[in-house]
Design brief:
3-stranded antiparallel β-sheet, elongated, alpha+beta, 268 residues
Length: 268
């Protein structure tokens, strides 16, 4: 395959992806492949986003000003990258507000970095899911500019932002975003929440589902399964802010007033 043919099919790609295609027509060393990429970067046909990651510059565009799709960048930052948390809500069109932080899951450690005003945040897949072939399930494929990318679906994202709210925004942002999801597979939500093994997460999920029982068509069996694994002793809704709030006995959760009453709706 000619390099230009590969570039035409890949808006953003990793060095390893191009190396595999470049070597398919004959024996070429990684050094030769690297030289080809450097030539195209110098010619303004490619942008070297970071080491080992490249973006194609469309014909007629200026490499100095061309804006690369940040979701495509995030999806190629690791060979197992999955767009997740608030970024998944954004990509799926359910986020209440937009953020310049893009979060992705990976089984490998990496450092955050910034490119074209977007901060890319890697998050390690939870240990209990890391060795599973599907990383715990609930991952779907989306296509963007002709390229496939992985993103957590509604159900997994629903649980993930309640499990790790630091990647979901404020509680108001999380609540309003999740309320934009009209339907979820509740059996998967319950099963996945239990699989994570966190009583606090289970209780948060149960509290949200009970609060939105009618809208999401939640059945008592879903709530019962979650109550059975909720904390044995009262726990604060927020791990880092252990003050204030009111105890919700069914879930052994001390819930902030703002979340319990959805007080932000009063000023909407």
């Amino acid at each position: 395959m000619k390099p230009t043919d590969f570039f035409a099919r890949h808006q953003v790609f990793r060095f390893e992806e191009f190396l595999e295609a470049h070597q398919s027509g004959g024996k070429r060393s990684p050094e030769t492949t690297g030289s080809v990429l450097k030539q195209h970067v110098a010619a303004g046909n490619l942008i070297n986003v970071r080491r080992g990651l490249y973006a194609r510059v469309p014909h007629g565009a200026d490499a100095a000003t061309f804006r690369v799709d940040p979701y495509l960048v995030a999806s190629r930052l690791a060979d197992d990258a999955v767009i997740a948390y608030h970024s998944a809500l954004q990509l799926l069109g359910k986020a209440h507000s937009q953020s310049q932080r893009l979060t992705y899951l990976s089984g490998r450690r990496a450092k955050p970095f910034t490119f074209q005003d977007t901060e890319f945040i890697p998050v390690l897949v939870p240990v209990v899911l890391r060795k599973l072939p599907d990383l715990g399930g609930g991952i779907r494929e989306e296509r963007r500019q002709g390229q496939a990318m992985k993103v957590t679906g509604y159900e997994r994202t629903f649980v993930d932002v309640l499990d790790a709210p630091e990647h979901g925004g404020s509680w108001e942002e999380i609540w309003r975003s999740l309320e934009a999801i009209e339907f979820v597979d509740l059996d998967f939500v319950v099963e996945y929440a239990l699989r994570l093994g966190s009583a606090l997460t289970v209780a948060r999920v149960g509290f949200f589902l009970e609060q939105h029982k009618d809208a999401l068509l939640v059945e008592e069996r879903h709530l019962e399964a979650l109550r059975a694994r909720s904390p044995a002793q009262p726990r604060y809704f927020e791990r880092r802010h252990r003050k204030g709030g009111k105890l919700v006995p069914d879930w052994n959760l001390i819930v902030p007033e703002q979340v319990r009453t959805r007080s932000w709706e009063e000023v909407a």
